Amino acid sequence: MNDELKTLDFPAPGERLAPHHANQDTLQLLSRRRSTVALAMSEPGPSQEEVEQLIGIASRVPDHGKLAPWRFVVFQGEARTQFGQVLGKVFKAKNPEATDEQVAFEAGRFERAPLVIAVISSVTENHKIPEWEQILSAGAACQNLLIAASAMGYGAQWLTEWYAFDRDVKSALGLGSGERVAGYLYVGSASDEPVERVRPRPQVSHWQA
């Protein structure tokens, strides 16, 4: 969506990097970041090069132990429809009273956006790095995806819902031991401007001895 993004320069191992990146535009983006609901997304979606950049940025998160405790499953084109058929079949089997319209609604979930990326929390079990830290790293990958998509000029939404927790859906995704869905990241062109919601005041305290 932005030709300048094609010049992204990911560092090579061993390369020295700036200790800080003062950038008012980045601060402004973060201060006004707002999710775009998947139902308000449309074509065009990210190009293949942009998808690779998104995943590269998503991978640049704190990772205690260098375990890379996450992986990505990309849904584009016909794959969205095919996976939707899995969702519809699973939903119907577990909700036999569901109407055809309800089943179709579930089957069409991944067709709401041109791109869906499943971020899989992939924990290395029985490791000295606490499981909780590994899971948090996967959550950070989701947030990096959201911010990067916004910076590229796309709308994005991080969802879980029932199909992030269902055993049969996990099986269809090929999840193994220690793996779970951290989130589905929907990315596409925003067809409407999201409205700022009421946000609770942060709870902050200053510790004193």
Approximate strand percentage: 15-25%
Termini separation (Å)?
A: 52 Å
Question: What's the pLDDT, averaged over the residues?
Answer: 95
Q: How many beta-strand elements? A: 5
Radius of gyration (CA) equals 19 Å
**Low-pLDDT segments:** none
Q: What do we call the CATH topology of the domain at 35-77 and 111-189?
A: NADH Oxidase
Give the CATH superfamily of the domain at 35-77 and 111-189.
NADH Oxidase
CATH architecture group name of the domain at 35-77 and 111-189? 3-Layer(aba) Sandwich
Question: What fraction, in percent, of the residue positions are helical?
Answer: 25-40%
How would the global form be characterised? globular
Number of helices: 6
Mind describing the biggest β-sheet?
5 strands, antiparallel
- Note the run of SSEs as H and E: HEHEHHEHEHE
Assembly annotation: single chain
**The level-1 CATH class of the domain at 35-77 and 111-189:** Alpha Beta
Category by helix and strand content? alpha+beta
Textual characterization of the structure:
With 209 residues, the protein is of the alpha+beta class. It has a domain at 35-77 and 111-189: NADH Oxidase, CATH 3.40.109. The chain is 35% helix and 16% strand. The chain has 6 helices and 5 strands. The chain has helices at 24-31, 48-58, 78-94, 100-107, 131-152, 167-173; strands at 41-42, 70-76, 115-122, 155-159, 179-190. Strands 1, 2, 3, 4 and 5 form a 5-stranded antiparallel sheet that branches. Helix 2 runs antiparallel to helix 5 (131-152) and helix 3 (78-94) packs across helix 4. The chain is globular. The termini are far apart.
